[in-house]
Amino acid sequence: MTGMPAALAEVVSDFKEVDGQDKLAMLLEFANELPELPADLEEAAMEPVPECQSPLFLHVDAEDRSRVRLYFSAPAEAPTTRGFAAILAAGLDRQSAADILAVPDDFYGDLGLAALISPLRLRGMSAMLSRIKRRLQ
Question: How far apart are CA 28 and CA 23, in angstroms?
Fold first, then answer.
């Protein structure tokens, strides 16, 4: 999977190994694994991503560009949005800025969720990645 850090390529590979509703089940598993925010980071200080169907906030800590930290906040009642955020957290947190910037903007198409999730929801994942990249440029 060219242009993806190994951790993100592994997530994509895992999604490619399952079909149909199993992909949605996997997305829900990711939603349940979204890391909690650190105690010193409040949602009010984070950037909103209004393109998401549900409230989502993100924070990019690029103080160390060789090990970028990503933080996401989404309500428990928004499992699709939380799942997308958790995929990005699992695949891109602690990666270098250069590696994150090299991720194809449409990598999420490789997850195979387009037939199961509305284009509006997929646009939310695209928006998250775009905002992360913008913070790193």
Answer: 9
Q: What is the 3-state secondary structure (H, E, C) of the chain?
A: CCCCCHHHHHHHHHHHCCCCHHHHHHHHHHHHCCCCCCCCCCHHHCEECCCCCCCCEEEEECCCCCCCEEEEECCCCCHHHHHHHHHHHHHHCCCCHHHHHCCCCCHHHHHCCCCCCCHHHHHHHHHHHHHHHHHHC
For 10-68, write each residue's pLDDT tens digit: 999 999 999 999 999 999 999 999 999 999 999 999 999 999 989 999 999 999 999 99
**Tokens coding 59:** 């924070």
d(CA 51, CA 97): 23
Q: What tokens were used for 56?
A: 């989502």
Q: What is the pTM of this model?
A: 0.95
C-alpha distances (whole Å) from 20 to each of 9, 15, 30, 126 are: 20, 10, 16, 21
Ramachandran area for residue 118 (φ above 0: left; ψ -120 to 50: alpha; else beta):
beta
